[in-house]
Design brief:
The complex is a heterodimer of chains A (121) and B (107). Chain A has strands spanning 3-7, 11-12, 18-25, 36-41, 48-53, 59-61, 69-74, 79-84, 93-101, 107-111, 115-119. Chain A is mostly beta strands. Chain B is mostly beta strands and 107 residues long. Classes of the chains: A mainly beta (121), B mainly beta (107).
Chain lengths: 121, 107
């Protein structure tokens, strides 16, 4: 069964770049049926889609974050990554990776465990 | 961008109640709508996809309906394990948007 394992620091200083990685196991990252995405959830708030990537490297971003977000994929390592630059306290959130699946109408049927990222000096 | 509006924001109900949550899209998304359940400290769980298809392993008391701009999630008989927050999510043209969530509380 496909699993997503997140890794990356839980504390980032203001103005620096947040970097997280999601490792895919139990399945192929290169399937044409899936995208790979990042979602975040500020404390006590709802879910916000950050962006998604296809295994070929095509990326799609939330317009509100587009200027600061880079999502990349490394198929040789079965990983995809998130970089969010110039972070502020407003970027403090639980960050999730997930798999939007064509067979699920691009609903996200597999999720990572979540990483709590705090932006603080 | 397509905006998703859920109602109500909070819902108080008792075990055994029939519960309905509504999600409206700012423009037509045909049937590209999913529903999730999230419990505190956990990742969301996919319940319904393509507006009305039940994800494998999800109890049949959950159902979804609608198309275009108006959608509903119904829990036919609320169980203790169902007290949680529910989100709708749309997909359209390589963009995903979530509703603001509906918290189902114990009455």
């Amino acid at each position: 069964q496909l699993q997503l394992q997140q890794s990356g620091p839980g504390l980032v200083k203001p103005s620096e770049t947040l970097s997280l990685t999601c490792t895919v196991s139990g399945g192929s990252i290169s399937s044409s049926n899936y995208y790979w995405g990042w979602i975040r959830q500020p404390p006590g708030k709802g879910l916000e889609w950050i962006g998604s990537i296809y295994y070929s490297g095509s990326t799609f971003y939330n317009p509100s974050l587009k200027s600061r977000v880079t999502i990349s994929v490394d198929t040789s390592k079965s990983q995809f990554s998130l970089k969010l630059s110039s972070v502020t306290a407003a970027d403090t959130a639980v960050y999730y990776c997930a798999r939007p699946h064509y067979g699920s109408g691009y609903g996200m049927d597999v999720w990572g465990q979540g990483t709590t990222v705090t932006v603080s000096s | 961008d397509i905006q998703m509006t859920q109602s109500p924001s909070t819902l108080s109900a008792s075990v055994g109640d029939r519960v309905t949550i509504t999600c409206r899209a700012s423009q037509s998304i045909t049937s590209w709508l999913a529903w999730y359940q999230q419990k505190p400290g956990k990742a969301p769980k996919l319940l319904i996809y393509k507006a009305s298809s039940l994800e494998s392993g999800v109890p049949s008391r959950f159902s979804g309906s609608g198309s275009g701009t108006e959608f509903t999630l119904t829990i036919s008989s609320l169980q203790p394990d169902d007290f949680a927050t529910y989100y709708c999510q749309q997909y359209n043209s390589y963009s995903w948007t979530f509703g603001q969530g509906t918290k189902v509380e114990i009455k």
